[in-house]
Amino acid sequence: METWTVETNDGGGQLEVHTFRPASAAAIPGSKAPAEPAGVVLVHGTLVTDSLYWPFARTLSVMLGRPVHVYNRRGRGHSAPQPPDYSVETEIADLQAVMEKSGSDDVVAHSYGGFVALQAARRFSIHRLVTYDAAVSLSGNLSSRWRPELEEAVTAGQLDQAWAHLVQGLGTAGPISYLPMGALRTLSVLSARTRLGLEMRTLLPTAVTEMRAVLDADAHLDDFLKFSTPTLMLSGGWSPAYFAETGRMLSGAVPAIEFAIVPLQFHEGPLRPGRRLAARVARFLAATHNVGQRTVAP
Predict the structure, then answer these.
(1) pLDDT beneath 50: ranges in the chain
(2) Which residue in 76, 189, 212, 238 is deepest, having the highest Cβ count within 10 Å?
(3) Using CA atoms, how far apart are residues 101 and 200, in angstroms rounded to an integer?
(4) Tens digit of pLDDT for each residue in 217-226?
């Protein structure tokens, strides 16, 4: 794995990027490295950092024979903080900067990252796109998922209460999402004793701004009629149903978009061990594609 940075185009600082490359002939002493194929950028979801996606990125890189670049979005790791005027436009510009600097033409994105990638594909060229449980708001269908109590709790520093509202509202934690608020608050206290749980608590303020960005960008099917990026929208068989409903709606209205269910997968599928999801993503991206004057067959 290589760690490097990309400067943001708004003067806000930098984005921390981690790159995974498959083993190649360059590793053999005296061999000549072949021209590297265009890479894939992976955009992570909310309440997490990019490190949770490293095993998935490594597996995908091996399957494709291409570099996969994962970056910490604003407010995480060594990346710049979210600016005061944060919006989806911030994320779109950041994704474009990483793609251009890394020489990538494909994107894989999870949850909130899927929302960012779909919005980005409406603004600039992406060769092929795969989303998993993309958090897209269509005609207000996610408005009921937003709980004002979440923001109030974060502002008041009541992070256990905020975490409970987030889990119940989004329903992305599997059966845990349906526990009573008191039980969820207790789970939050217990999880804060772990590195991951503590990290999630510190990222709760970013979740508030990101959820607002999704709702502020609420779209209608007509807004996607000119969408032309070949896209595969995936949803887990055990993910909340609203992700699949959005995928079906978009694929039914937009010729460039396909939709499929990945059986036996929860919302956090890209974070779990296993190769099933990575293989499904790789099959869609593995088609021969042109990069500038080169033709690359991963």
Answers:
(1) 25, 29, 31, 290-298
(2) 76
(3) 29
(4) 999 999 999 9
Which among 279, 271, 293, 265 has a CA at the least distance from the CA of 130? 279
The three-class DSSP label of residue 251 is: helix
Q: What is the value of pTM for the model shown?
A: 0.91
Q: Which residues contact 39 (CB under 8 A, 6 or more apart)?
A: 19, 66, 67, 68, 69, 102, 103, 104, 105, 106
Q: Which residues contact 222 (CB under 8 A, 6 or more apart)?
A: none
Let me know: does 98 contact 18? Beta carbons within 8 Å: no
pLDDT on residue 34: 62
What Cα–Cα distance (Å) separates residue 270 from each residue in 56, 115, 277? 6, 16, 7
CA distance 235 to 75: 26
Looking at the DSSP bridge assignments, the partners of residue 2 are 19
- Per the CB < 8 A criterion, the answer to whether 282 and 145 are in contact is no
Contact 298, 270 (CB under 8 A): no
Q: What pLDDT score does 262 carry?
A: 97
